[in-house]
Design goal:
The chain is α+β, with helices and mostly antiparallel strands. It is built from 7 helices and 8 strands. Strands 1, 2, 3, 4, 5, 6, 7 and 8 form an 8-stranded antiparallel sheet that branches. It is elongated.
Length: about 220
């Protein structure tokens, strides 16, 4: 991933937060026919520090658990908020016209060695963890124990676990850091005016750039 310094995000808690919020990961592996991508919900364990471990499961019928290279690292891609940025958001547009559209986004690329887990107890814990995560907030959340035990045991035999012990996390927060403060303010205003979940989430990320920046030196006039 092309990663200019101004867009680099290195804070592990921030990267972990995006992973946990993202829901679905794109898992890229190397197989006998080259690169392969699978789309999987993943659970993150913060241990071992500092980067943690990712866990997922796939259908036993999916060949990735047998064919993915153990020599090449696997890559899990997590997508955070993203949104189109119109030149109309920038005050600079009215002054010089020297502006172009762009796209803001936040992503995490997580790398590590892939291992396969077929232990039924491990798989049961993972399914429970993912279920609790995605059912949270529902008035009557579904639980694994709502289904007959023999049915769940049969389902567990049809899946295989994947575990990635993370060795590298790359975070890219492309959120208008390359624009002047007043253009960033225009982006925040424009996104908030759109008033949809995606625009609001991106507006908060852009606004955070200024909250994290050191204060401007006082005028000495």
């Amino acid at each position: 991933m092309y990663l200019p310094a101004q867009f680099r995000e290195e804070r592990v808690p921030v990267l972990h937060d995006l992973i946990r919020r993202s829901g679905l990961a794109t898992l890229v592996t190397v197989g006998p026919d080259g690169l392969e991508a699978n789309h999987l919900p993943m659970a993150l364990d913060s241990e071992p520090a500092p980067l943690g471990t990712l866990r997922a499961h796939v259908s036993r019928a999916n060949p990735v658990w047998r064919t993915a290279s153990r020599e090449a690292q696997a890559l899990a891609i997590f997508q955070g908020p993203d949104h189109y940025i119109s030149p109309a958001f920038y005050p600079t547009k009215a002054e010089s016209g020297k502006v172009v559209p762009t796209w803001n986004y936040a992503v995490v690329h997580a790398y590590g060695s892939l291992s396969v887990v077929e232990d039924a107890a491990w798989l049961y814990r993972l399914v429970e963890q993912l279920t609790h995560r995605f059912e949270a907030g529902r008035a009557r959340p579904w639980q694994v124990t709502d289904a007959p035990r023999d049915f769940i045991e049969t389902q567990l035999k049809a899946i295989v676990g994947l575990e990635i012990r993370l060795t590298r996390l790359d975070g890219k927060w492309k959120v208008s850091q390359n624009r002047a403060p007043r253009d960033r303010a225009g982006v925040v205003d424009g996104l908030r005016a759109a008033d949809d979940p995606g625009s609001r989430a991106m507006a908060e990320l852009v606004a955070e750039v200024d909250r994290r920046s050191p204060p401007a030196p006082p005028d000495r006039a």
